[in-house]
């Protein structure tokens, strides 16, 4: 088996998580890691893991002749230029979501990838969660008949710092975009219409920055199914991630993951552990699985499991939700694909 030499750009929390997974993965080797703010701490961290090159200049990775693929884990505003540069240098690409905040820029990046003939996988890690992927298998096998309704609950345990809100792109693009992708993944159909409502019920600072922290979004799919997603930036009991798909022949659902399945019953009630608190706990296995499948696709010459098209569709849904919230009406995705500005 040929070893895939990897370069990682962006050594924050997610970049380091991917690195630690790759280090345990047969057939992959981290040849370099880069971060604009790389210093002694990162160099020490890399040395402990046998990563030979640490750089502050992404060109050192992009132009390295022995690097086969890059993982782009840097801030969203850097994704499009880095994707273009990687494609121009013949590197396969894994990029965290979203590709960009602009549909036009995302399309430019996808065009560069297609022209170069390289692979691009997007980091929608929830598709690789053991619960969600099992639900998808059941739906795809026709065991619940034709899909009628999809319900997704996605609530964070605590709101992010206001400084993050400033650069996040908003709740729909930052948080709910995962749910928009999962809705498409479960339904096997494209979203054609979006209606969103939102409020500031958790943190007034989020509202002062022009965003919302609570949302209810309804989706209409091309196959006639309907979807509903509820989001909150604060669930006091932990990270709340549940789904249900209801169809003509039955229903399938997935509950939260818990530290244990122990249930205590007594005279004062029945209790159990709270859901896993943080997304890194909840989706630890999913992060490993998505990285493994990216490497496998390169070894086998097969299509990546989450494509640039998937990224574009999720961004379109997020932008439609934003427009719907602003204008108080349902928004058809066709409005965002027929020359109408994607700015909102």
Describe the global form: globular
Total individual domains: 2
> What's the CATH class label of the largest domain?
Alpha Beta
Widest sheet, order of strands: 12-11-7-10-9-8-15
CATH level 4 superfamily of the largest domain: Dihydrodipicolinate Reductase, domain 2
Distance between the termini: 47 Å
Which spans of ≥5 residues are poorly predicted at pLDDT below 50? Answer: 339-344
Radius of gyration, rounded? Answer: 21 Å
Roughly what percent helix? 25-40%
Oligomer: single chain
Verbal overview:
It contains 13 helices and 15 strands. Strands 12-11-7-10-9-8-15 form a seven-stranded mixed beta sheet, covered by helices on one side. 37% of the residues lie in helices and 24% in strands. It is globular and about 60 Å long. The model is unreliable at 339-344 (pLDDT under 50). By secondary structure, it is an alpha/beta fold. Strand 9 (214-221) and strand 10 form a beta hairpin. The termini are far apart. It folds into two domains: 4-118, Rossmann fold; 129-282 and 313-336, Dihydrodipicolinate Reductase, domain 2 (2-Layer Sandwich), CATH 3.30.360. It has helices at residues 13-22, 40-48, 59-62, 79-88, 103-116, 130-140, 162-168, 171-174, 177-187, 204-208, 279-282, 284-300, 308-327, and strands at residues 4-9, 28-34, 54-55, 69-72, 92-95, 120-122, 147-155, 191-199, 214-221, 226-232, 240-247, 250-254, 263-266, 269-272, 331-332.
